[in-house]
Amino acid sequence: MWQDDAVRPVSVGNRNEHFRFTWRIDCAAADRVQNRGRRAFHRPTMPLTVPTVLRSLREAALTLLAMLATLACTQWFEPGPASAVLGVVLALSLARSHLAGERRGRLEALVALPVVSLASVGVGELLRHAPWAGATVFVAAMAVSIWMRRFGPLALRAGSLIALPLVTLLVVPHLPQQGGGALARVLVPLGIAVTALAWVTLAEALGRRIGWLAPADPIAAGDDAPPAKAASALRPSPHTRMALQMAAALAASFVVGEVFFPSHWSWIVLTAFIVNSGNRGRQDVVYKSALRVLGAAAGTIAALALAGPAAVHGATAATLILACLFLGVWLRPLGYGWWALFVTLALALLQGLQPQAAQPLALLGQRLVEIGIGAALGVAAAWFVFPIRSTDVLRRRIADALAALAEAMDPESAERRPARVATAIAQVEQLRPSFHARHLALRRWRPLQPVDWIDTLAACRAPAVALVARGETPGAVRKAVGTARKAMREPAEIGPALGALRHVLDASQVQAPAIVEAGS
Fold it and tell me: Is residue 26 part of a domain?
């Protein structure tokens, strides 16, 4: 699904830029994020390197394998485009949301997914026969799925499972059913959901067996420790704010869609959901909205060039849709714009599978307009409904990374895990794309930007991890870490403090080989 890792909470003290942070890092949660990131099919935006492209290509191939196998089974259950699209979307979403990534997660999904799928069938029936009631239930369920994530990893997975079938309703609301009665309309989606989960699990197992995916971490699999909760002075809490923002965006999208675009309301709602999911602050929502609109515009142009004046139907359309999804999954870790482009193209081709779409390309302009409206509604909700500043999210994650480093450098610490430090810094680097775009837009007027904090901390990762791995705890490094943590209260001091930390870490790397040579 289009959900990234949960936003780290921000603690805001008052309005005059004095921020109160809780320095305790959630180590158990960091381990889960680390292991999930190593095992899952997909990762956040990465630099364009040959190993990155090849790794993403292998993961996309495994995802495509799961989609094809699920597609074949759905046509055995119930031939037709509706079941095919549902199966492909569920397989793709399960792979992207990591819900089949570990044994405990698979068991939970196996139990919960049929239940929430059955509930989503009811929501779908409401959307068809009582649109306003269905929209109300949809918005409430989606908001609750986000709000409940504040209660730990189990609630996080449950929230993802609740949201997953609801999202499929936005992709396949208009495709014709093949009949079979009310019982078939209930049982077939349940069977498809379980089948998709099974094939994603098998594809992941195959990837590990042939070396395309890293082996599962047995330590993480048995990690039942609850996450430590960081106190936050932000009221309402960050998760509550994100839930309210999503509810506002979806509610406005349903109203605009049903009133002005009753035949294709789902395009607006889907866009509003995408740009607000994985919310890392209002700047991040603006950034994703821009990429969504630009990707949709490029996808519209590509659809016009690909299909020409005639619609694409049947096996040709299915092949092109799967190809678009494969390319989108492959290039998604390199930039969200690629995902938006190929998904828009796939949806345009999917339009040709609808019986009433004699000229589907005539609707591409309308689709682009509705995507723009959905993006605008998502931005408005993030900006005006209990907004969260992206800079505050960045400072919270930098504080967490420094806390992880301080814990690893503590001479009295019984256990030092370099991977925890690397994972915490990687969480900071996830925020770089939107801050880099901000830097490009404002560098003429504001040459110093928060993206410099991200780049400086990222440069600290290799020497910090190497130092922790050697078990060394130099006093100069510990002092620099403490100074950087104190500097988080004043934005003007963050850059120089992180720069000093980087200098000390680089010096420790230079001194380490000399000490080794002297000892030998």
Answer: no
d(CA 4, CA 292): 16
Q: Decide if 7 is inside a domain.
A: no
- What number of residues does the chain have? 520
- Which residues, at least 6 apart from 323, have a Cβ–Cβ distance to it below 8 Å? none
**Boundary residue ending a domain (217, 246, 273):** 217
Number of domains, the chain: 3
CA distance 449 to 439: 6
For residue 169, which of 286, 67, 269 has the smallest C-alpha distance? 269
What are 149-167's pLDDT values in tens digits? 888 777 777 787 788 778 8
pTM of the model: 0.75
CA–CA dist 333, 328 (Å, integer): 9
Residue 353 lies in domain: 234-388
d(CA 91, CA 81): 15
Burial of 380 (0-12, 13-18, 19+ CB in 10 A): middle
Q: Are 58 and 18 in contact (CB under 8 A)?
A: no
What is the CB neighbour count within 10 angstroms for residue 441?
11
Which class for 483: exposed (0-12), middle (13-18), buried (19 or more C-beta within 10 A)?
middle
Question: What would the pLDDT profile of 7-20 be if each residue is shown by its tens digit?
Answer: 333 333 333 333 33
